[in-house]
Design goal:
6 strands, globular, single chain, 6-stranded parallel beta sheet, alpha/beta, Rossmann fold
Length: 189
Amino acid sequence: MDDPDKVLRKGDALIVIDVQKDFCPGGALPIENGNDVVPILNEWFKSAIKAQVLIYASRDWHPTNHPSFVTEGGQWPVHCVHDSAGASFHPDLKVPDNAIIVTKGTRFDKDQYSAFDETGLAEELKKRSVHRIWVGGLALDVCVRATAVDACKHGFEVHLIKAATRPVTPEGGSDALEEMANAGIVIED
C-alpha cells in the first residue's frame, strides 16, 4: 500500500471499523492477529489528521440480549456489550479526539454489520462533501465487507486498506475480497 500521506486528499474520509477489545486476541470474539491492524491504522490516523481528512470510527455497542448472540439464537458469542470493557476500542488504537464515533448493533430486533445500516452515515458523508472512502478494521469478512459494499451502494469510491484488516476465517476473507472487488471496491495491498 502506498504511503497514506501520498494518497489522502480533500474529499476523502477514513472509516475504521470495530477495532474493539472483544475482537482482538483475549477478547470474547477474537479475530486471529486482530491487534496487528492497530499500528497500521494509527499511521492512517496520523496521515488523515495531516491531510485534514474526516475520521470515523465505528463500534459494535450491543444490548445485553442482542439477537446476534448465541444465547438469543444468533451465531456469535456475547461480545461488545454496551459500556463493557470488551466494547471499548483497543487500548493501543489512537483514535483522534476529532474522530466521529459511529455506534451500531444497538437494535433489539436485528444485527447491523455495516456502519451505514440505519446510522445516517451516508447522509453525514455527503453533507461533508466526501466522495472517496478508505476502510480498514475488523473483521474483513463481516463488518468491514458490509460497510465497504454499502458505501459503494451509496455512490462512494471505496478503497479497502487490506493490510489494516483481518478476517474471522481465511475462507471468509477470500470470499469477502472477491465480493468487494466485484462490487468495484479498490483493494489496496
